[in-house]
Design a protein that fits this description.
alpha+beta, 2 domains, 4 helices, elongated
């Protein structure tokens, strides 16, 4: 989650300081693609008024809401077996990859898997194919997707 210090933290949209008593919205770091228009607001603080006026505001609020509804205790259901994931060492999360209405990878947002079940997941090949295509086509910037693909493939062995 973004850290906001009243009277010191700047708004990610307008750049002005968020004053004490000012209404602010803080977002966790969950948008990992540096080419995603929402990336600049991820792990950031904004004046509520700036966010409401910004064209990215509704999409960012919806994406952050989806994040809070899909991660955390009690929300870790393996997509391969349907069982709850309770062992942190056997847990793999495919986090926010993009807007599911515009990015094919978005259909895999918040996919939870037992690492030991990745090889059995019926969408594994499709996920890797779409992820590789996004990386190869330059639709992704940053280290997150290559790391997700590397770790995913390591679990398939």
């Amino acid at each position: 989650m973004a850290i906001s210090l009243s009277g010191e933290t700047s708004c990610a949209i307008c750049g002005n300081v968020i004053e004490r008593g000012g209404e602010a919205v803080l977002f966790p770091r969950f948008v990992l693609n540096e080419k995603d228009p929402l990336y600049a607001l991820s792990d950031a603080s904004c004046h509520a008024a700036c966010l409401n006026a910004d064209p990215r505001g509704p999409a960012m609020l919806a994406a952050a809401d989806a994040c809070s509804k899909n991660i955390g205790p009690g929300k870790r259901t393996c997509a391969a077996c349907g069982g709850e994931i309770t062992d942190a060492d056997d847990y793999f999360l495919i986090a926010w990859l993009g807007d599911p209405s515009t990015d094919p990878l978005g259909k895999f947002n918040y996919t939870h898997l037992h690492k030991s079940h990745i090889r059995d997941w019926k969408h594994a090949d499709e996920f890797l194919s779409l992820a590789k295509a996004a990386a190869d086509a330059g639709r992704w910037q940053g280290t997150a997707l290559p790391m997700i693909m590397r770790d995913f493939e390591a679990c398939r062995c």
